[in-house]
Amino acid sequence: MPIPASLVAITKAADVRFNGDRPWDLQVHNPALYPALLRDGSLALGNGYVRGDWDCQQLDELICRLLRAQAHRPLSLQAQLLDLGRVLRDLVGNPQTLRRSALVGRRHYDIDPRVYAVMLDPGMAYSCGYWRHATDLATAQEHKCQLICEKLQLQPGMRLLDMGCGWGGLAAYAARHYGVEVVGITVSGQQAQWMREHLADLPIRVEQCDYRQLPARDPGPFDRIASVGMFEHVGRRNDRIFFSTLERLLDSDGLVLLHTIGSACTTRRIDPWINAHIFPGGRLPSAMQLARGLEGMFLIEDWENFGLDYDRTLLAWWQNFEAAWPVLQHDSSEEFFRFWRYYLLSCAGFFRSRQGQLWQLVLSKPGRSCTYRSWRPVRQEPNMAAQQDAAKPEQHCFDVEDATSSHRRIEGHHPKPQ
Question: Rounded to an integer, what is the distance from CA 184 to the centroid of its chain?
């Protein structure tokens, strides 16, 4: 079966070939893939891979190249009409209603818990790690938790709201190392149960609810609020509701840390495979949309981007999953293996292409009386790092940028976690 000219053109622009000999080339086993790609685009690409219609040795690099070449755009009139239909449904309806938010928990989180146990770090963090000074996944996730706690300026006795707490990695870290009381919320029954069983010795309370239901259960105020990897599920129709909920729950002198995946450009286009199989109703904000959603309620004190760290995090998750597959395969299928490989590696390619961003924002209310200083891990010269570590083994060092963009060294107040 001849390959349609439009597919040849877009893959040529991406320096990708059908049945080529390079590791990022597609090896097509079923020629029915070609018309399916013209009709359904990335939905057909993902579904075809899971079925075994094609293979690729370096799947992450393939997706990165296709995205950089804008190959995710609809290629046929039928595909354009399907894409327009998805956009119109988003404009007319609300894909992130209370009822639909529970679907995310059932679809993606409430699966065989062993999958996440073997894939993630010991703290079960299911969000981007911070690799600036890390060489392994566990350290990257610990550094991410430390970074969040330092940016929030946590102090003993504070109340922290962890909005979208996952399996409680950040909540546990903050309670153990910063002496705070934590309330965590999740839409996943398995996540809530796991936290109640494993973190019962810590001052952590978990509520299984949507963020819109929390004020009725705990009206606050909270000294600090963290939202890590949850804003992607809010949707632009609900941004003002989300930020007004934060405003209602936060103390007047409090701080919010928002950790979210972002889109490099404002678009109404969604990836239909991810929407259908991974995160139903998930929508990524652009910088403009994010700022518009919080305007008038919060000020942006700090904005850090480390999107390429997600590429490295996803590759580490895939390596863990692949290594554990000989154990998992007895209760799973080959399709599940291919499904999980496509999910993790295609997302790695998304971040490598720079279309996907990872942002951390620190927000405050306009009436906050204290000046906020942005925190970053110290920028050490390679030949000085060992001497500085040996000289101060029990302290964290951070750079703070002042108004003149000069750097001064500030010692952290907390002992190094053991």
Answer: 17
